[in-house]
Amino acid sequence: xxxxxxxxxxxxxxxxxxxxxxxxxxxxxxxxxxxxxxxxxxxxxxxxxxxxxxxxxxxxxxxxxxxxxxxxxxxxxxxxxxxxxxxxxxxxxxxxxxxxxxxxxxxxxxxxxxxxxxxxxxxxxxxxxxxxxxxxxxxxxxxxxxxxxxxxxxxxxxxxxxxxxxxxxxxxxxxxxxxxxxxxxxxxxxxxxxxxxxxxxxxxxxxxxxxxxxxxxxxxxxxxxxxxxxxxxxxxxxxxxxxxxxxxxxxxxxxxxxxxxxxxxxxxxxxxxxxxxxxxxxxxxxxxxxxxxxxxxxxxxxxxxxxxxxxxxxxxxxxxxxxxxxxxxxxxxxxxxxx
Length: 339
What we know:
The protein is an alpha+beta fold. The protein folds into two domains: 3-203, Jelly Rolls (Sandwich); 213-324, Arc Repressor Mutant, subunit A (Orthogonal Bundle), CATH 1.10.10.60. It contains 13 helices and ten strands. Strands 1, 2, 3, 4, 5, 6, 7, 8, 9 and 10 form a ten-stranded antiparallel beta sheet that branches. The model is unreliable at 1-11 (pLDDT under 50).
């Protein structure tokens, strides 16, 4: 099913530029990239001969896109980041062609076999200089923060194919992609943890650094936020006042984390809500009750934020998790009976 047939992108679809009249290909290509990778702009107009094909599938917050495209360019600015509710981590395996990325003035060129690591909290520019074939695996950034709480924002952006362990990561991405795109792999959380676990092993252990006054202050601030997440009045001004620091200094503490105070609070609340949706003992509580209990004040706003972060509405997430739990329990019972 193509966008031309439905007029919009659907998870699991196959998209191709040939489905669009020449005069509509630029906008169609830009819309597709935004749906898959988040808010961005394509700044090199594609011509009538531009060709691209993308296979894409998403389950929860885990998604894979297999893309083949002609040269093009674009970028994601702080304006885009501020307008985008999603915070994601993407591992990109280049299979053929060349793509150049620019982060904070640093240029990274990728060729066949190289893996790029990038997250949606930083501005980025891309320039496809040769016809490209790549596979992109995208996951919630919050999961990387759990694995690498102190260095997640400063890891190397490029894993060259010659790096020990990078070949294994590339092989897993290449093998995982067709099975996931066909819909035979469906546990988003397990896939996320598996890929991240392998990535962390390739990167090696986090380097311990001396605790600076700034790091100590940030810990105090995060502890205060964790203790007051359910308070709807947990605003940046309230946090700064409670921690006896200026609002400007509070914002600067989180700049080093690659996020904002507001985004951090929202994501922490979303993670708490998700945890309670997964808890059978909370089945009696309504979605709105849980959301309001963690500081959200508008059910529609909460649902939009939750879907942007985890790929499913709160209702769908809860029902899917419950069904998966029942199926897993049934499988365990069947194995026990056989034994």
